[in-house]
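new request in #modeling-help
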Amino acid sequence: MVWLALQNLYFLLIIPIILLLYLLKKKYEDQEISSILLWRRMILDIEANQWWKRLQKNLLLFLQLLFAILLILALLKPVFPTEQLIANHSIIVLDNSASMLTKEKDNTRFELAKEEIQKRIKALSSNQFITLILAEEKPRVLISKSSNKDQIRNILNSISINFGTTDDSAAFSLAHSIAMTEKDTGILWVSDGANQTFSTTESISKEIPFQHLMIGAVRENVAITSFVTMEMSKGIQGIIKMDNTGSSEKQGKLYVYTDEKQLIDVHSFEIKGKSSYSYLLNSLPKSRYYFGMLEVEGDFLEQDNQLYSVLYQNNERTGILVTEGNRFLQQGLSLMQNFQLTKLEQVPDQMEEKADIWIFDKQIPTKLPEGNLLIIAPTQSTPWWSYLGEKEGQGTPEVMKKDHSVNQHVPWEQVYINKLIKLESMDGLETLVRLGDEPVVTAGIVEGRKIVILHFDLQQSDMSLRPAFPIFLHNVVQWLTPKQSLPIGNATADELITIPFTANTIDRKIISPSGEETTIDINHGLNPLYKVPNQIGLYQISEKNEVEELQRFFTVSINEEESNIVPKMINFSNIEANEDEQSNQIADNKNIGYRDLSYWFIWLALIVLIVEGFFYYRGYE
Amino acid sequence: MKNEMVSPSLLDPAFLQKLERMKIITKRMMKGTQSGKRRSRQLGSSIEFADYRTYTPGDDIRQVDWNAFARLEKLFLKTFYDEQEIHVTLYLDSSKSMAYGNPSKFLVGKQLAAAFGYLSLHHFDRVTAYAFDQKIANHLPFLYGKAKVQALFRFLEELNPTVEGNINHALTNQKAIHGKAGVSIIISDFLFEEGYEKAISFIQSTNQEIILVQLLSKDELNPEFQGDLKLIDSESKQDKEITFSPYLLKEYHHTLDLFLEKIQHFANQRGISYLLVHPESSIEEIMVQAFKKANIIR
């Protein structure tokens, strides 16, 4: 037993006060009797007897003294060293990675770890401190050097599992450097130790007490580690890879569903310990995404038993350029990413080719093709418009619709146009740029197609030589091809990813697996950064433009490494040689925690008080 | 007639009549040859036959049983218990400690002395009464005959317990003895700082058969004190502060038992009759039951 508040020893002064009061209290009533002979003899007898009989005479006094002493002892803060806290200042590093979700009997490892920490919080005395660090991708200090038990408990209770990547090396470095700066500081590492790598790379100062509280036992786990679906020439194919990180052979069933939750495949499998198993899915029905799920007996980690796969789409945009020859135009278009350009010299008769964009340079079809159109300098009348001739261009072009995406960042004022082509105005088209009274660029939707018309021949302008030209081309292609946004790969929780949005959308939303919607401001550009929340599953990107609502998906899954749930004790490379010493150190350190015994003394004092009362009423003294 | 002679405060006349039929038993009733030396003083109670023995020259031939000689032609002497007058000496403790109790031990002591004196005088025994504290405070020697009952009672009534007592000092004194063999009845509480053994041994050595009558009041035998008391000795005025508890009372009883055992043992060893008397009992009860039972009177 240790006394934490020996300074309170001066309360012992109360003992002589009690004795004094006791002596003063005694007021003897006179009583004359025939002879005190027998009484005197009796007292002599008693005094000659055992000392404790003499004590009995003053039972109440002794009970009072005992009461006072017990209270004083309680004030001295007696504590019992317990094997709980590692140092006066304990840095507790908690592993909240997905592998901590492994089931251990009734609780998960994570719950067990929290319970262990709760025990230590309970053992925390007023002059001891706890720092709580989470070993996440970036170590997170949740509470720094606190002795407020309630606060630490509240924070501990609010911690949830991190499905993202963890960097325990960084967490260790942080804890180690905190411990180095302060005396009597130790590190208590609370984790299952699975996938922990820092102990082999880092070394620990021998002065720093370190204890690894390994949570969990060796458990079996089978996981879907990857699920890819792809549109091939033969149809949609998929491949599912499963890993058994346990040591025994496992049997199970694999279920595959479509986005409509329709079961499309059930496959029974056997997978040996510490090995992988791949399953190929052929001729899958068309679906925006697929869902794979495992059913394995005796699997201790459920969260990695399911995985979504978003159909990998070949997102290359196609364009057909009909021109007699314009090097600048051809060059400018071919430089664009994900854009496959086919060049035709004449307008084809049947217009059967399929393309996202048709680009007509000084030519015009009689029938509108499927797909969107960029028409440059149409010089003929067609059944659907009238050519009105040419006009001299004077002055600089004036931008009418600044916020139209076709116009974005295009320095029209630098462009000189010699001759403009006059066309009859059409419903659905609006003038984006004009020169004088004549439109230079018109754009809009005609018969369900997006159309951009450039009202001048590029050879009658210096635009091709200006920076405005590639920017304009880019804007036009972006606006005309709705599918131009890039697919998003597989992400992990808490990861910062770039989401390629489609141009010209007026509303962008990301819907998490739990249904939470995040609106992305369109002013943040086409490729904003997005921090994936700490949720695994299927995420939906919903984009709205003037015409339609586009939906895309991406998946967030558990870090593949977390499927390895075999716990491992942390042993530092630099102190492996004298392991005994280390274990001793740990054993010693275990004795630094204290259990407060004050309450026990107060309870004892109370009992003594009750006993005293009992004797008092019995008239015993 | 004799009833009127007695002070009614000391003894009840009806009880006195009963006393007349009682007699102190003495172990001194020796076989003797002095039969007929004195007349029997009691009507109806003749000389008690004791035994026969053969004649030896020098024996009183008047005591020869001639009837036996006529049949056996041998000289036999008929022997009788010699019925002598006995000398009863009453020692009454008149120290202050006797004044306690309800009725006081002293009153009961006086009544006992009166009773013993009365029945002795009634049987024509000689009676000497002593009252003692640290010394012989008063005495009334050699009373004889029923006429002296009044004197004895008056003597007893006038006694007052006022000073500290010391039996060893009071009775080991020439003034405390009269030189005649007989029965000595010592009535006291025997609560003496310096003990009582010396005095009793001294009295016994003066050819006395001793009867000890110990008077202890209820408060002494079974005290019911509570709380914190300063017990003051009535005689010495010494005090003792005591906080009463059941434990302490138990201890007192233990001490008291030892004290009583000791006096009883002392008496037994020396062939002394001993009786503990509760003053709360009636005097008749004491005399009729206790003393008879103890074979002190019959």
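bot summary: Chain B has two domains: 3-25+86-293, 31-81.
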